[in-house]
Amino acid sequence: MKRIGILTSGGDCQALNAAMRGVAKALYENIRDVEIIGFLDGYKGLMYSDYTKLNPVDFSGILTKGGTILGTSRQPFKKMREPDSNGLDKVKAMVDTYKKLRLECLVILGGNGTHKTANLLSEEGLNVVTLPKTIDNDIYGTDITFGFQSAVDIATDAIDCIHTTAASHSRVFIVEVMGHKVGWLTLHAGIASGADIILLPEIPYDIDKLIEAINKRTEEGKQFSILAVAEGAISKKDAKLSKKKLKEKREASLYPSISYELGAEIQERTGQEIRVTIPGHMQRGGSPCAYDRVIATRFGAAAANLIVKGEYGYMVGMRDGEIVKVPLSEVAGKLKMVDPKSSIIEEAKLIGISFGD
Amino acid sequence: MKRIGILTSGGDCQALNAAMRGVAKALYENIRDVEIIGFLDGYKGLMYSDYTKLNPVDFSGILTKGGTILGTSRQPFKKMREPDSNGLDKVKAMVDTYKKLRLECLVILGGNGTHKTANLLSEEGLNVVTLPKTIDNDIYGTDITFGFQSAVDIATDAIDCIHTTAASHSRVFIVEVMGHKVGWLTLHAGIASGADIILLPEIPYDIDKLIEAINKRTEEGKQFSILAVAEGAISKKDAKLSKKKLKEKREASLYPSISYELGAEIQERTGQEIRVTIPGHMQRGGSPCAYDRVIATRFGAAAANLIVKGEYGYMVGMRDGEIVKVPLSEVAGKLKMVDPKSSIIEEAKLIGISFGD
Amino acid sequence: MKRIGILTSGGDCQALNAAMRGVAKALYENIRDVEIIGFLDGYKGLMYSDYTKLNPVDFSGILTKGGTILGTSRQPFKKMREPDSNGLDKVKAMVDTYKKLRLECLVILGGNGTHKTANLLSEEGLNVVTLPKTIDNDIYGTDITFGFQSAVDIATDAIDCIHTTAASHSRVFIVEVMGHKVGWLTLHAGIASGADIILLPEIPYDIDKLIEAINKRTEEGKQFSILAVAEGAISKKDAKLSKKKLKEKREASLYPSISYELGAEIQERTGQEIRVTIPGHMQRGGSPCAYDRVIATRFGAAAANLIVKGEYGYMVGMRDGEIVKVPLSEVAGKLKMVDPKSSIIEEAKLIGISFGD
Amino acid sequence: MKRIGILTSGGDCQALNAAMRGVAKALYENIRDVEIIGFLDGYKGLMYSDYTKLNPVDFSGILTKGGTILGTSRQPFKKMREPDSNGLDKVKAMVDTYKKLRLECLVILGGNGTHKTANLLSEEGLNVVTLPKTIDNDIYGTDITFGFQSAVDIATDAIDCIHTTAASHSRVFIVEVMGHKVGWLTLHAGIASGADIILLPEIPYDIDKLIEAINKRTEEGKQFSILAVAEGAISKKDAKLSKKKLKEKREASLYPSISYELGAEIQERTGQEIRVTIPGHMQRGGSPCAYDRVIATRFGAAAANLIVKGEYGYMVGMRDGEIVKVPLSEVAGKLKMVDPKSSIIEEAKLIGISFGD
User: Fold this and answer.
1) A242 lies in some domain
2) Chain C interface residues facing chain B, Cβ-Cβ under 8 Å?
3) What's the pLDDT tens digit per position in C24-62?
4) CATH number of residue C314's parent domain
């Protein structure tokens, strides 16, 4: 009998369940005697032996379901090496649970932070296979993560709705898009929805050029401007600040987020009314789109296949349209950012989208 | 030949185009020689003779289209009796345009403010027929307005998305729903999406009871609470302030809206993390839902039928499932609010929804 | 302790789970000591004592879920009085299960057939409360049933999609809409989606007038016609046949449904290409729309309230916008059809929709 | 001044307008003095000089719009070399129009047939740039075509709806998916929606194995089976027939499509009830999904960039995630089919999906 552990960690996203269903279906189909153990609330379940035996029926009907049937939690990597409040050695506790349960392998679904810990566990000698989940699409080693396209759909929908109502009034609409420190989500949703201006963390904006872009539209007789603004967008000025100074500045700010701050500045300088939309956690929720379900299912099946073949220490990903396995050591600790010189940025500029740079 | 004028006024919403298509199709089908004149940007077009002749082709394919093909603008009723910046008498200007064009009738699509002006024009002797549009559903004399159900769908969708992602973390999610001074939209979207707590302008909340409701959920082991909060929601304390004091208090507030202010208070008193979602103008946009398209089309056809029969001075509406005509004088200046003692509130309380009262 | 039984019967539809959640939440909130028993697969579960104890957690998260957590089955009313294949007296078996479990009341969610049996059980002395579910909206005694609006949304979506692709080719598109023997679904979806021609069981079509309506569009330069055809649509000629003759004719037909038969005739007589779309069971599936969730929740809460008050023998429904209770004896055995002289038909004709009559 | 012609040809699909908007925006932004001529209804407009001058406003607001603002028509390549009914030499006529208008280049959006003619025009010396549009995703030389993902979304939605209603009854549901002679659409929608059995033209099915797969599900206690069947699916037996024989057999068939024929056979051999859903042309319609809008916009911008640089005779496509230009001669006359040995098929089989082979 092979016993496989599985957990989901970090901020949740769409298609986590679809991916776990892919893993489970392929394990049940291809290993004669297999048992799947689900750890609850991410690494916490592994640490504190909080788990449940999963059966085929648990994976039935979850393909289309948002969230994760196992729950998740954020466990900052920095604190993994520190003992918990009861003095427990976290890493040792996780290794102990793994050994106590005589696991053949641990399947871990998560984002950037999750992959650092997964690599750590792999280095500790555990058999680990991971799947790249995040709406941010910032995981190194794979062209695409599941969750991303579903979030693009939701953010695009938001801007679409704004578009139909924008036409009648002279206003600047700001839609704040998630994405943490990277701009993939904002970039794709911005292009998909015909945003006029797109602000990304990777391309700090020059406030004067931004104002100029808005004024240019007004001069051309366009009654409104739509800005897709990444939650991590940053001005050229702020980009030059030290990390510490920037943190201080933000904590002192009266505004709950970049959009309100930027909105106030635009209002002051252009005299136009500002409307702010914050889809927020909507972008992590809802049923996964067909695209995500297909790649999540494929990733899941491929992960099971690695287990069948006994190949461990890998993340399953996609490169150039092909499913690949990437050594965890290559993935951990890196961030995949939008390249300001990439062809998608070039094409966006060709059609007149301003990045405020 | 009969010449009919048409205009859309106030904040836009879904199904404005569907309603105009209904009017136009029914006019073209049932009056041998008819011409339709569209005034641009609401009453402004009528004031300043800014109009265009519309043809059947202009109404083709607009059934599903958000926004309004005529544009709209907000013209506060209070200022209708004041001259404009060039000293123009606005009401006289509108009457003059009407007469100059020898209009048979003016079809006006709008909300509360719009209806005051429509009634005024009717009193000035113009033939007027109106249609009730607004996502707020606050127009007196009709059970339902078009735009409302589409906005309910969007706000419900937003809370649905939050729901799937909420389950994994211990948090309070606040979704701020539009609706101006009334709570229809929040009430329906809140029930439809399974919100735990619903705050409406019509039922001022007691902050202590609200905190209690959240804490009760936590004690019951529920990991999150979802609050559907009307943009016009108000605390019992604030509800006692004079209008002037309340305005001052709000202008002095550091928070861009009620949600952030309320969120800060909840965070302080419960210690839970807060996440705020502001769908904002999304709620006015997008393609109208099937329900709105049907009632908008029916309202439009019924308005045309009034014109065929030469019956003027009415708003078309729906009461008890039947299309009715309501004298404009009965509609103007009134607001249809949620009755805190109505059966829908009672049913919501029966299933355990808290209104913080 | 009060023990309440619940079951769903007949063809399934959206918002069944939402309604059951409404019942359950309101029972748990308002009766100190209550137990809910769910019978599986409709009346079969009651007949054969196939049931499960339901707990609050079973009703959590089902508001948005299509289908029914209890399963359903079709049990033709005609056969209720006949013994089953093992000689079991079905009605007696149901009464026995009810008594054996010492049920306070049985909550039954179903359509027309279901209500006949519910009335029978009520006449046998059981305490029964029912909820009207069906996409057909054909239940007597209520203006609206849950499931209907969700199905309208799906059928409307189908025709919307056809519309965008129809414009480029000279074709007749037939979309076959469900609805059993009534035309509510086709009528609403047809108006909502701008269908050119709508065929309903209640308004038998004259094939010559139908062809004429299509040819008229072609002559006016319109490149396509979209027909929303109820699965129960019938020609004037066939409407005159005896039930038996009609059945024979249909069984002898080479066509799988009315759409293909009608399509062949239209193709022959107009020379236009025909494209048929059969959304079929799609119309019963998917997440319920916000409208249905609200009324299903309200109906559920109102049903629980009847139980709290000990009022039995009623269906909960909606009339003129108010929740009402309707004696089962008034509901059973009747069909609510579209009135060909109703105002919605009149309005549809006003805007030029042809009913082929 | 540069004058660019543009046309859309073949069956329509989503994102045609998005792609043309991309071309136009990039041309207006990057060529000082440019004029865009739109030919109506595909190659017919080029043949018969039926065109219109397009202005920036014509491309405004069409990003989200299904269909094509230019219209389209099917012009079988085989007949391109034959004169039309008036004896007109079609190819010469197209070349003449091009020359008469002194076009710099012709941008052609189309599928397989369209590309054969585009290559022909290129060989005749015209400057041609093409964009790959089709829901079938069968164009050689590009990994992806726009329209495909939107159609996947719609077909997935259809099967999702079936899923929620399928659970309660013992039935076989057949959903017939478009795709012409290839199975991409069925494969992706089938995986995305959790279909149990997927039938593709590229993997002829063995009817005995198919029946076996259905019976196996029944034996395992599963109450229903969902089949995603490509409109071009074929049995092993039929796949051995000569083209002529196959055509004869199909013309003699009583069934309007493969689904009904297959359904009848399954019903006979398994005794299960069959339900057929034919989304049909729905799959070509509706607003393009975000994914398609992004690639269509990028393809459009890249096509304009080729024009800016004077590089002609290419199709714009995507390979391994990069925008590429592919010589038309490499594209024309080839079909991109699903490889039965590809990794996506392998992964689908890993999770237990049957292809009936």
Assistant:
1) yes
2) 21-22, 25-26, 28-30, 63-64, 143, 149, 152-153, 156, 160, 163, 188-189, 191-194, 289-291, 293-294, 297-298, 300-302, 304-305, 320-323, 343-344, 347-348, 350-352
3) 999 999 999 999 999 999 999 999 999 999 999 999 999
4) 3.40.50.450
